[in-house]
Every structure is written in C-alpha cells, then in structure tokens.
Specification:
alpha/beta; Alpha-D-Glucose-1,6-Bisphosphate, Chain A, domain 3; 5-stranded mixed sheet; 18% strand; globular; binds 2-acetamido-2-deoxy-6-O-phosphono-alpha-D-glucopyranose; binds zinc ion; metal-binding; EC 5.4.2.3; magnesium
Length: 534
C-alpha cells in the first residue's frame, strides 16, 4: 500500500460529504455539482485502474449532467471502443464513491486490483473533457488530482460534447489498426470526418433551407458552430439559437431536446415560422429532436422514433438498391417508443424490431446483434451500428450496375457519417439532413410516414421505488404482486390502450407511460394507472 501514499494524501484534499450516498446509475454519477468533488476525484482513480485492466488502452471520463438543471453535474466513464463502461464495473464505482475515509479509498482500490487481477505496472491512459456547467472546472481539478495520484498519462479535451469524447477515445484506441482506425482524435478530425462524409452524400442535390438549432445554451453551441465552419457549404446552412454558454442560469432552461420532448412545444425563447426547420440538442449534445409548425401554427415533433424510422427506411432502401442479399436492417426501441412507430416498422417497413430496457447501453448491445442496427430512444438518443457481418457483406458486394455501385458507396459513406460509439446529436443531425436532402423532403413530408398515438408520461413519487420490479424490457411488472393485473384491466378498457410502469434509473420515482386512441382516453388511462401505483 505504500505505493498508494499519494492516493491517500490527494484523497484528503477531496473529502466525501458524510451525509450523501452516491450511486453509479444509467448515466454515471449525477447530482448537485458541488457535492461531487470526492466522487470525481475517485473516478480519476477508477479510470486509471480500468485502463490498466484493458492493457493500457485509453479510458474516457466525461464531466456533464446532460439535460439536468444547471446546478447539477455528473461524471461517467467511457470504455476503449467509445462505449459506456462495462456494467460489471458500476459496482466498483459505487463502492469507491462511498468509501468513508482516505484509508477506505485505498482499501477499495486494492480490492479492485485484486479481484480484477490488475497489473499496476502498466502506465494508465485517460482522455477527459467537460461541459459548460459552472461547477465543471472545480470537478475537473478534482479529476486531475485523481489522475495525478496514479501517475496517469492524461489528455484534456477541454469543453466538448459527450459524443465527441466517446469518438476521441475510440479514435485513440484504434489508431494502430489499419482496418479499424476510426479517425483523428481531435475536434478538427471529428469535423473533417463527419463533414466530408456528409458532403460526399449530398453532392449534386438541391440545397436545403436554413436549419435553426436550439443548442440548449450548452456545449453543442460552440461545437456545432465549429462543425459548420469546417463544412463551409450551403448544404449545411444553420443558425444557432440558445447558444449562450456564458450567462449563468441559462443551460437547459426552457430549452433543449428534453424540454421540447417533455413539453411537446418549442423552446420558450423561440417563435416558429411555418415552413421553417428546427431541431434541439440537449445540454451535452447527445440527443436531438426536430420540429416545425404547420400552416395553422400547430407544433409538430419529430422525435427519436421518427428519426429511427427515417434512418431505417433509408438504409433498407439502399441495401435493396445495392442488391446485397441477406444484409438485414433492424430496429431497437424501448417501451417508450410510440406504438404507431412500432407498427410502422413491423407492418409497413417489414423490418425486425426488438425492445430493450431504457438506457443507451441496453439498446446498443441489442443493436450490435443486427447487421445494421438502428437504435433510438423516443427522447432522441440513438445511432446506427454496422456489425462485423455487415462490413463483411459490404466488402464482398459485387455491384452489377452503376446504380448498385452507387448504393454500396453510399452505405460506406453513411457508416462514416454516423458516430457508432454513442448517440450523437451532431452526427445524427447530419444523417437526418442527408436523408432529407437526398429525398428532397420538408419536415412535414418526413412526418407523413405515420401519426403518433396520443401518449402521456407521468412521474409518481413513491416511498420505495425498489419494490417495483419489471421484466419483458420493462413492459411488465413482476412486483408488487398483483399490480400488473390491475394495469392490464385498466388498459383493456381503452381502444388501442397500452401502459407500463417502471422505476426510474435516475430519479427517486416511478414512471407511468400510457397511450390510447384518443387524447382523453390516454390521459384517463395514465392517471388511473398512476392512481393504482400510488
Ligand atoms: C439516462 C439514459 C437515457 C434514459 C434515461 C431514462 C444514458 C446515457 N442515458 O439519462 O438514455 O432515457 O436515463 O431515465 O443511457 P429514467 O430511468 O429516469 O426514466
Ligand atoms: Zn445528454
């Protein structure tokens, strides 16, 4: 343990608040920013161990609380291929964050080293970044102490989006492989890769109208401006709204993808002009939704389900145009997917669809099983994955005509356009823009595919959410006993009714979701199920 004197000493500078218990949840640690100093310091230590356990590959650390209010903050770890931290390590994170004393921190550290058989002689490598929150610099300093305590070779990426950090980590760890190299691990490399793929795909098509981007007054604002500068083309004609990252109190306030999706309305600061095109990022730019006003001024949302069906349709048509046999496109959704989108995928697109539990890592793992797996949460978080089987089929493709060759080429270009490491608002936006430009579609034309069922999401505060257990991708309750039967009986009363109850992974509450054929049925169903839960 003498090797860890520095750990104990530095840990002393970041004592754990005695009255708080931390938990590494669906999106890492997330709570009031000021309380997270000890946790972020310790995440620095964990990142070092994780890197050593992965033979010195680079691990990512992102300081952000996404769409949460400005005073919150959070931190999460990124695994070598840019994916979320392997689930089996989440428990280590939680134990480490809750160690009471500096000696306890060293003890937890030693026990992880022992259980994982970690070779501590390996020099650890970590890449880190933060969003624009006021508490982020303080937390970054705590992280740097954690990294220094274990002599980590660290790269500071400054203020970038969460998906950019995931991309950098993947680039760094694939740099030595000619076949798998992902790109240059810099902001310029990111903009160059995605910008070039986008221009390759839209070349020769008519220019689109301006796209207004609500950046939630977060890190997406400066980053999308840099992307636009790099693309420098009328194909990417954007105007950033809610791009103020300097003034306090503005981040995610009355704006951003979560606000727009939850309230089914545009940001408070924006007036929509019929015919114009709008989208919103969340505070760390890993979610995106689109919207527009029709000629009567009514608001229409194009959420993650709409993006998912648009992408799946386009990919399915390209695969068929390329003449590649048995290259399957599939879609992964969660229980929150609007029922109309699921029917559309099954009945109209005739594509396989599976349900995963809420949280990106669950969708990601299901999508990896498909050749081309499109996954989105209704809230706008998602991406497309091409698995090894798909790559092999694309490599083997023998186009019989210029049209087939063009389709194969476009599939390769799409793979370059998409950030496969994680859902990415900027990359997803370029994907949507590509498809709309190629089809010559307005947002209203995109919206015509299907009409959303009326839906309602309620939050029910209960004494103990841990008594709620689910199965079937969170669509069926197994406990408390008998409650699912009550829900089923309520659902049966309403035409095309659907409802489910699940404990939140991020808040101390239970969520109730309901859909039905009419708005009033839907609301009645939601409130009666909530009544049964309470
Ligand atoms: C986290 C998830 C998000 C999910 C949300 C559900 C990631 C990166 N984020 O924010 O995908 O929609 O949790 O929250 O996985 P809930 O469990 O409180 O409903
Ligand atoms: Zn986010």
């Amino acid at each position: 343990t003498s090797a860890f004197t520095k750990v104990a000493e530095y840990s002393g500078k970041h004592p754990k608040p005695a009255d708080i218990t931390f938990a590494y949840g669906t999106a890492g640690f997330r709570t009031i920013g000021e309380t997270l100093e000890s946790t972020v310091f310790r995440v620095g230590l964990l990142a070092a161990l994780r890197s050593q356990s992965k033979q010195g590959q680079t691990i990512g650390v992102m300081i952000t609380a996404s769409h949460n209010e400005e005073r919150d903050n959070g931190v999460k770890l990124v695994d070598p291929m840019g994916e979320m931290l392997q689930q089996s390590w989440e428990g280590y994170c939680t134990s480490m964050a809750n160690a009471a004393t500096d000696d306890d921190v060293v003890a937890v550290l030693s026990s992880i080293i022992e259980s994982e058989g970690i070779d501590v002689s390996i020099r650890p490598k970590v890449a880190y970044a933060r969003d624009t929150r006021p508490s982020s610099p303080l937390l970054q300093a705590a992280l740097e102490d954690g990294l220094a305590a274990l002599d980590v070779e660290a790269i500071n990426y400054g203020i970038v989006t969460t998906p950019q950090l995931h991309y950098f980590v993947r680039c760094i760890n694939t740099a030595d492989s000619a076949a798998a190299a992902y790109g240059e691990p810099t902001e310029a490399g990111y903009n160059k890769k995605y910008g070039a793929a986008f221009l390759r795909l839209v070349e020769g098509k008519p220019h689109p109208s301006k796209l207004y981007i609500d950046a939630a007054n977060g890190v997406g604002a400066p980053q999308v401006r840099k992307l636009a500068e790099a693309i420098n083309s009328p194909y990417f004609n954007i105007e950033v709204c809610n791009g103020d990252t300097e003034s306090l109190g503005k981040l995610n306030m009355g704006c951003g993808a979560d606000y727009v999706k939850t309230n089914q309305r545009q940001p408070a600061s924006m007036t929509l002009t019929p015919g114009d095109r709008y989208c919103s990022f969340d505070g760390d730019a890993d979610r995106i939704v689109y919207y527009y006003a029709d000629e009567h001024g009514s608001f229409h949302l194009l959420d993650g389900d709409k993006i998912s069906t648009l992408a799946a349709t386009y990919l399915r048509d390209l695969v068929s145009a390329a003449g590649i046999e048995d290259l399957q496109v599939g879609v992964v959704q969660t229980a929150y997917a609007n029922g109309s989108s699921t029917s559309y995928i099954k009945d109209t697109l005739k594509l396989p669809t599976v349900f995963a539990k809420t949280g990106v890592k669950h969708l990601h793992h299901e999508a990896e099983k498909m050749h081309i797996g499109v996954y989105f949460e209704a809230n706008g978080h998602g991406t497309v994955l091409f698995n090894a089987g798909a790559i092999a089929k694309l490599r083997e493709a023998k186009p019989q005509s210029p049209a087939q060759a063009d389709a194969v080429e476009r599939l390769w270009a799409l793979r370059d356009l998409i950030n496969e490491s994680v859902g990415d608002a900027m990359s997803d936006m370029l994907l949507v823009e590509t498809i709309l430009i190629c089809k010559g579609w307005t947002l209203a034309q995109w919206d015509e595919a299907y009409t959303d069922m009326p839906s309602r999401l309620l939050k029910v505060v209960v004494n103990d959410r841990t008594i709620f257990k689910t199965t079937n991708a969170e669509q069926t309750l197994t406990a408390p006993k008998g409650l699912q039967d009550v829900v089923d009986a309520l659902v049966a009363k309403f035409p095309r009714g659907r409802s489910f109850v699940r404990p939140s992974g991020t808040e101390d509450a239970v969520r109730v979701y309901a859909e039905a054929a009419t708005r009033s049925d839907c609301d009645q169903l939601a409130y009666s199920v909530a009544g049964a839960v309470f």
